[in-house]
Amino acid sequence: MAKKSKDVYGSDGQTNLLTFDPERLVLVTDEMSPLYDDRVNLPVDEALARNIDYQGVLEPIAIAKNPETGAAEVVFGRQRVKAARLANEWRRARGEAPLLVPAVVYQGKRQSALDAIASENEARRADSPIGRAEKMRRHRAMGYGDDQIAVIYNCGVETVRATLSLLESPAAVREAVDAGEITVTQARQLSKLNPDEQREKVRELVKAGEGVKPHERARRQREVLASNKPRTRGRREIEARLAVANGLYADALRWVLGLDDEPQATSAAEQQEGA
């Protein structure tokens, strides 16, 4: 006789896990309902849908039975349900079997459902950027392509590469990212500098963001990074330089301004004169 899972794993309890076609689950939109959460109106997360298409819904949602209609209403897990619906559209278009959504029955009182909705979301803790980068590195080492890693981590390929670049950054940069003082994108921009320049620039970025609101911090940090970019010379400035230039340098300026098809070769004497 087959053993029960409870006995096989030595668990202290067992609950029933239900599975649903996501189309049958009801997302409550009535603001007067205790199960209402305004995030039900958020757009479908396509990155999450790709992840679910790849490996299914890994974490069960919670449902409650509507006492009036008998429908299975979602207590928490709305985004997973919406993403699963989109993933199933793709799967049906490919001729593949649709996925089912695992669910547990919410055991609390219906009128207290908002407590569970808030707690379930607030209790989630995302991995740190460096921790995420290390896991991505391990996936790469296992032979996963960046496109596959992007699906697993619910992001784009560029985000995968930016996150992985953190592992090559100086400790000061990695610490600033983990502390939320600079972004992964900013860290990747710094990676174009040598290590000493990165350390100096990250100090400037952190200082620029101290004691200000997020919007102002973003503006100040953009200015810090912009100061690191080479300045583009305008047409008037180039024309002014051309007025006093000669030889190879003048040929190059004329070419930049579109006055010649290509820079003309000059003799060594002309180059000497232009210098």
TrEMBL record:
GO terms for biological process: chromosome segregation. It holds the Pfam family HTH_ParB. GO terms for cellular component: chromosome. SUPFAM superfamilies: KorB DNA-binding domain-like, ParB/Sulfiredoxin. It comes from the Bacteria. Residues 208-232 are annotated as: Disordered. Residues 128-222 form the ParB/Spo0J HTH domain. InterPro entries: Chromosome_partition/occlusion, HTH_ParB/Spo0J, ParB/Sulfiredoxin_sf. This is ParB family chromosome partitioning protein. The lineage of its organism: Bacteria, Pseudomonadati, Pseudomonadota, Betaproteobacteria, Burkholderiales.
